[in-house]
């Protein structure tokens, strides 16, 4: 937790805030070993970041006096991510990784090799998803929560939503064996599509290419989804 | 397990092999749902990869008839990694990530902000480390096990070992706030040094720069160690 991300309900007034949730209190006590008087980095959800002073801390609450929160959060990555729904534990970690890297638009997509049971996982509960997004933001000192969209059917996504999503950004389909090496440092907005463990099936690859996506690959090595998304985003990122 | 990595003891003769360890048998049964007759990808430790046919499978053993293992493993990444020892769970995952990405030389280093207790972790047991390296190799269809060196004292590493390590490769110190952005697609061998959660302390940074390392950074975002190593390696990789 490199940033204490204040939600509107945490603000008492313009210059003070109080948090009461056990997770963050525990972190302040045990990891930060914070004491009243300590200066910490705070941010306002979807707003700026700055410094604040811990004025009180006990088992039930932490209170802060806020300086002007005048610093903009770090720049977002203008790469939207479409990820075939990974197995639940991998999903959790992937959400944290890509949020920390600055992705602001995440679509979780069904595809042939996604196990149907994954769509029933408690990890898809909006509150659970939100928790992983917050962990990614707190890690990277960011304040802007990504939007997460579930697409539990491949074809309606492909036919009804993808064309509009590609109107202003280049589609990149990361898939082993594609012709082009993953580009470095993109100069314009992109939508990155990453398949499931085992990859998209040939029909899905054909359809995504036919929809205008460019096929890219990272070489012979087969990577786990969570390794691959970080490697792809780091390589594509212009930041 | 995208590759069954045969150790010398698994070979019965030039054309047949048998594995008996519970981990891989379980994977063959439960994940691959393999049946005798199936063709699978196999590799010989530190050797080539190729195809083999499963000739027998039960609870105690899996037997394979091997074709000529004639394909070279994927190219290694000529970037040595020096990583401040992460907390145990992060260490396990980081070893798998970087092995899958093709790193062949990993040094785990002490630094001021590494908790002393981490050096007592059972995760540092050579057999445990080896297990994570094997998982990374099996994932990426690689056969060459990375070398892992423990450096539980910073100063002897800095003074006695680092100069020789930098004789033929450029040292890159990844640290927030350094002048240069992380380069893309290195043309020559490198040694990448990554600090602990919280970073190297200023004295350590000074000493590493004085030893000839170049300071690089990935931007304002503070990343978890396992995210940062993958992002850095993906960006530096010429492959």
TrEMBL record, chains A, B:
Subcellular location, in the record's words? Cytoplasm
Tell whether Disulfide bond is among the UniProt keywords: no
One biological process GO term for this chain? rRNA base methylation
Identify the keywords attached in UniProt to this record, alphabetized. Cytoplasm, Methyltransferase, rRNA processing, S-adenosyl-L-methionine, Transferase
* Enzyme class, broadest EC rank: transferase
Q: Which GO terms describe its molecular function?
A: rRNA (uridine-N3-)-methyltransferase activity
User: Please, which domain of life does this record's source organism belong to?
Assistant: Bacteria
This protein's GO cellular component annotations are: cytoplasm
What family does the database annotate? Belongs to the RNA methyltransferase RsmE family.
* Stated name of the protein: Ribosomal RNA small subunit methyltransferase E
Species in which this protein is naturally found: Pistricoccus aurantiacus
């Amino acid at each position: 937790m490199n940033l204490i991300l204040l939600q509107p309900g945490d603000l008492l007034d313009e210059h003070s805030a109080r948090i009461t949730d056990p997770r963050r209190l525990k972190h302040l006590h045990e990891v930060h070993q914070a004491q009243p008087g300590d200066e910490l980095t705070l941010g306002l959800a979807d707003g700026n970041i700055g410094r604040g002073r811990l004025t009180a801390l006990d088992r039930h609450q932490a209170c802060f006096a806020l300086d002007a929160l005048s610093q903009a959060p770090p720049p977002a990555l203008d790469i939207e991510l479409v990820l075939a729904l990974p197995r639940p534990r991998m999903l959790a970690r992937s959400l944290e990784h890509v949020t920390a890297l600055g992705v602001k638009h995440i679509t979780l997509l069904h595809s042939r090799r996604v196990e149907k049971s994954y769509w029933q996982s408690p990890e898809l509960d909006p509150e659970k998803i939100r928790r992983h997004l917050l962990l990614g933001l707190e890690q990277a000192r960011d304040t802007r929560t990504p939007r997460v969209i579930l697409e539990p059917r491949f074809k309606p996504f492909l036919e009804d939503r993808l064309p509009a999503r590609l109107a202003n950004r280049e589609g990149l389909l990361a898939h082993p064996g594609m012709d082009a090496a993953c580009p470095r440092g993109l100069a314009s907005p992109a939508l990155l599509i990453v398949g499931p463990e085992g990859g998209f099936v040939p029909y899905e690859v054909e359809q995504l290419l036919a929809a205008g996506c460019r096929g890219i690959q990272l070489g012979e090595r087969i990577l786990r989804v969570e390794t691959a998304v970080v490697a792809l985003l780091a390589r594509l990122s212009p930041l």
